[in-house]
Amino acid sequence: MNKAHRFWSGMLLLLLAGISLPASATCTKKDSYAAGYDRNGAGIGLGRINVTSNYLQPVGTPLGSSIVNFGSIGGYKQGPDTVLYECDVGDKDKIFEVFATNGDDRVGGYWDLGAQDGYPNYFATWFPYVGIRLTHINSGKVFTRYWQSSPITTYATSANGNKIQIRVKDFSTVQADLIKISSKPPSLGSGSNYCAGYGTGGMAPTTGSSNYNCDQPSGYTTFRGPGLELLSAPNDGDDSNTHILGWPAYWIAMSMWTSPQSSVNYTATCVARNVTPLVILPPITVQQLTTGQTSQAQFTINIECDNNATSGVSTNNTALGLQVPADSYAAAQSLGLVNGSGGVKYLLSTGYGTDSSIATGVGIELSNAVTGTSMNFIGANTCTAVNCPTGNPTGNDAGWYPVRNGANNNGSNQSGYTNYLIQLTATLARLPGQTVTAGKVDAKAYVWVKVQ
Fold it and tell me: What is the average pLDDT across 364-378?
């Protein structure tokens, strides 16, 4: 969003009115990088998403999810530890993050198209029929066109103890979620339409594959603190369509254009229809595990495929994988169980290493019950511009396998589509080099079917 002309005219009005800044300003900006410019902020990093038929993907279908971490912004020379603001110690309860969608742009956050489908706060994007919702993780508040705030509760302290320092890592991460929506944004009516000349009708085409070629951000976050109220941020409740105080110097942009750039493709694929909700592993003793014995149980996944879908792990093929939660991923990393592609060999219990009731030294392996193929789990979303510039890693090492590997044909409910039953095996085993301790095993994983 090129807001420059509006920003400077606003400053001129302040000067003509004779408004001056307080002489006793207590917060100061310490870093000069303007992360609010359209191409200077953080990449939302949703990777490659796929849009297919309304039969497999009705309105409301999740299309992708990611976590935006501002520490990845290259302009911050000290990374997450870059100090953005410094305030008096007495101001620690008066400092806030302030955030909103890019509310003046047609595909940046003006049109809440999800609302008419029953999914409020999913805003139009440059990808047709794809809506995005941003959630401020620390507060749980969902971004809207109207500015909201949340207290900043973590910070560093200067060497003399008189100042608090607000670093990049003190700003909350933001979760981005995509769903399928039923409509495209109107051509007219928004505050701006900077990507009008990009693509077909100012949007990506609805065939083939496209990168997110519109540089308009989907949202912004900024800072509010004593002494900066007239410079850095709008007030709570102000409409971001018209209230842009502090852009670009004080703002941080979040964009699907920024590296790692998101992309969309329109490919025949499959979806998961059902999965065994609870897998119960037979009890086993510490001694049995220590001597190499295991405990196993099978479970099933029901999928439905477009008959034109290609099963595989190459580009435009459909693959299946099971993803570990973030806490399990972190524990696996600490034990050296994550490979170079982010794949995880063992699924660990929730609370592993922190909850005394959880068994340690053990994890769950995954395999295909029909083919016998040993499978990695997909790691937590760790995509950055450095390790996956065009999307999340693919292939067996990353936890992806051809969706119909070992699948049994289970008939058809709809012409042109086929149901399949996939049988997998969960195996509780001793972790390499670890000592087994008694306790419960309580783990979970998420089933993903995705075009590669």
Answer: 96
Cβ neighbour number for residue 332 with a 10 Å cutoff: 24
Three-class secondary structure of residue 173 per DSSP = coil
CB atoms within 10 A of CB 156: 14
- Residue 7 — pLDDT band, cuts 50, 70, 90? very low
DSSP-assigned letters across all residues of 353-386: TT-TTB--SEEEEEEETTT--EEPBBPP----TT
Mean pLDDT of the chain: 91
Two structure tokens written together for 355: 């909850």
How far, in Å, CA of 400 to CA of 449, rounded?
9
Q: Using CA atoms, how far apart are residues 182 and 60, in angstroms rounded to an integer?
A: 9
Q: From 83, 97, 91, select the one nearest 22 (Cα to Cα).
A: 91
Residue written as tokens 């994983």? 445
Residue with tokens 């095993």: 441
Nearest to 362 by CA among 277, 448, 286, 420: 286
Per DSSP, what are the bridge partners of residue 151? 96
pLDDT band at 159 (very low <50, low <70, confident <90, very high): confident
Q: What are 56-93's pLDDT values in tens digits?
A: 999 999 998 888 999 989 999 999 999 999 999 999 99
Bridge partners (DSSP) listed for residue 423: 300
Mean pLDDT across the stretch 287-297? 97
Please give the radius of gyration of the chain, using alpha carbons only, rounded to the nearest integer: 25
Tokens of 75: 């302009």
Question: What pLDDT, on the 0 to 100 scale, is given for residue 1?
Answer: 57
Q: Can you give the pTM of this predicted structure?
A: 0.82
CA distances from 321 to 76, 175, 318, 402 (A): 35, 21, 10, 9
Report angle CA 93, 172, 22 to the nearest 5 degrees: 40
* Structure tokens, 363: 């994890």
